[in-house]
User: Fold these one by one.
Assistant:
Number 1:
Amino acid sequence: MSPRTVAAAVLIALGLVVLAYSGITYTTPGRSVAFLGLHFQTTNSHFVPPVAGALALVGGLALLTVRGRPAL
């Protein structure tokens, strides 16, 4: 498999997952705060909208169907 085909397959798979779940929410660790001897850990929430999944799906399909420049 060529790298182009692998990239297309990954984009299509990720696009389908994002569309199937109507967007994906994930959290990352935020800042830790120490106050009066207590330690608090914060988290940041991120959202990947379904539009990003649709764009990834279309991009993957385009990579599979569009031919590159002919070799010279």
Number 2:
Amino acid sequence: MMTLNSAATLRLLLALDAAVSGATGIAMIAAADFLEPLFNVPALVMRSAGAMLLPFAAMVFFFSRPAQLTPSRAWAVVALNVAWVVASILVLVTGWIQPTTLGLAFVLFQAVVVAGLAELQFTGLRRSGAAAG
């Protein structure tokens, strides 16, 4: 079972994840047309990715609330973050997009940030003794 301290830390990490995901999603949607020529990432792809982040951010924020935090919900967030990182890498290595150097830096930067959050969440869950459920 999670201790109060580990649960509080995990709630903070989830709230941070929600804030970063929500802000990134809004920015990707709002700036897609501006960023398309800079990143060589189609505006539709940018908007679609941003639109996927908004419900994710809302879900993670909901999970971060004290009465809503469960190990299984936190593990689900970790798994979705890992999936995002994998998808980010796959769009690059498969050639699905051919970003500029700036676009490549953006894709890699956001993947590293998400991977970092997933690692911190994973570590927090492991240290709390939370099982897979």
Number 3:
Amino acid sequence: MEWRERIGVQPDVAFGKPVVKGTRLAVEFVIDLLVHGCTVEEILENYPQLKREDILACLAYAGELVEEQIMYPLGAR
């Protein structure tokens, strides 16, 4: 999944946070819906401007960000 095709940043939309292109829905909002138990089907039903591929792109984007982070053992600072 190439998230760059579906995720973009516009300074005047969502305070410059990454959004699903063509919407005002921030990536963090979509991921938060999933974290709080919404299914992909529920999200698609409630936000018809989204496609399944958009949700997968949000996850791919988040995954890439996590890969780039320096990881420390739990409890270490």
Number 4:
Amino acid sequence: MQKLIFRLALLIYIITAALVTAARIGRSNQGNAARGERLFAGNVVVCFACHTSDAQAISLESIGDRVLDVRLQVPENAGKTPEQFLAESILYHDAYIAPNTPADLMPTLYTRLLTRRDTQDLVAYLLTL
């Protein structure tokens, strides 16, 4: 009887540990906005070169709202989340070009420079703007 109780307790422990691990892995897909802000202004990713508060710069103010209200309403973007759209815009800049925007503005090297975590963090930061 003691062996059965021990085995049940061990099984419950293993299942609980697996569920906790799964929950942590699920959360790991969420970006860290503070780290994203540091990347945005950092030396490797030079977003700030074009995306500043200057009048001639490409504004990112309320980018999350614009993605929801405008970009995701375009048929070729249907079904995407704001996070997916922004990540794609960073990594594959020519996947969708906004009207009246030159096609060659975004650098093409971000697919090689950014890790998945970097991209998630940048997207999390952009959604705070």
